[in-house]
Write a structure and sequence with these properties.
32% strand, 2 domains
Length: 410
Amino acid sequence: MCKSIGIVVAVFALIGAACGGADSAGPDVATTSSPSSPADEDQEPSVAVAEPALGVLPDGPSALETLTAAEFPPALIDPDEIVSGGPPPDGIPPLDEPVFMDVVDALDIFQPEEAVVALEINGEAKAYPVQIMIWHEIANDEVGGVPVSVTYCPLCNSAVTYRREIRGVETTFGTSGRLFASALVMYDRATETMWTHFDGRAVVGLLAGEQLEAIASPLLSWKEFMESYPTGQVLDPEATGFGRSYGRNPYFGYDDEGTEPFLFTGITDPRAASKERVVGVELDGTSVAFTLDAISDGQAQATTYELAGTDIVVLWRSGQSTALEAESISEGRDVGSVGVFLPVVDGRALTLIANGDTFRDEETGSVWNATGEAIEGELAGTRLERVVHLDTFWFAWATYRPGSDLVEGT
């Protein structure tokens, strides 16, 4: 059997397993979205809508039960493009009560090169290993006093975190079992409106048109997280409440540029292969995607770029394996860890360059790591301001950010 056929068979097998309960000993699983026409960021409702009141959420029909109720505001995407991925709502079970352990107690539980979703808010740092998130896709949590939903979509290889508050009301998010543009479609448990994982927009349901606040949560290697946040915490794989084969990749072979995305029905942007890995950034309505070839070289590389009139710096460091290639999460090829930052400290612009496996700014000679912290020199202890970015596949970024610039390697 050729690899591409094997991938499809494997994904359907995973979908069939996805409805297992918390006590299921067998693997259970994951899937995510499918498109045709890109989401139109400038689309406005065709009817006048009253200004929503803070602290008040509407009551009415659920988008989990119907995508075309008369009570819904105009949908932001064609409901027909929201397709079933197989599992029922929460058939891929989110983690609603995630349990953590201290980094110091988990040093040998995870492999140094395996990917984790890293989140730091108000001085509290947590890691959500992809070996766990690939089976659950959403973790409803609180970090630094902020209620958040950490989301990971295996089919578009992207991690995004959102503040889980809508109009001042705290809620949680679940997996709808449906896909748009081969990306996870979530639903909020307050109104059961459909939300797209990739950009945090309510697209169909009572809250259509609402926008969640994104919080930077890059994919880092476990080693990078341990070194940068030694007093942080990490999800405990023994305390999820579910029987899953953590550490095994249920999407074996999916990270292959020669294959097409699962359940994607749209037209892909021909400027790059559908599954070419990119780093996507958007500022003030202007977006750009960098291919890995454009930002990676040797042990480390710093790439400065002007986006929407603002200088950003993309820091890449080797050492993170792709979770979606090999049978084991930790055994994929090295794709490196990426951070995107504003290279400014106290109003002073900095020029960062590669310095072995770290970075150095030309202005003060301070040494920086890939998480934007100065670890030696005049600015030691200083952190650069993060810019939200996505490590993802080209087809996903080009669908949600049509017309984005693409920076390719030479």
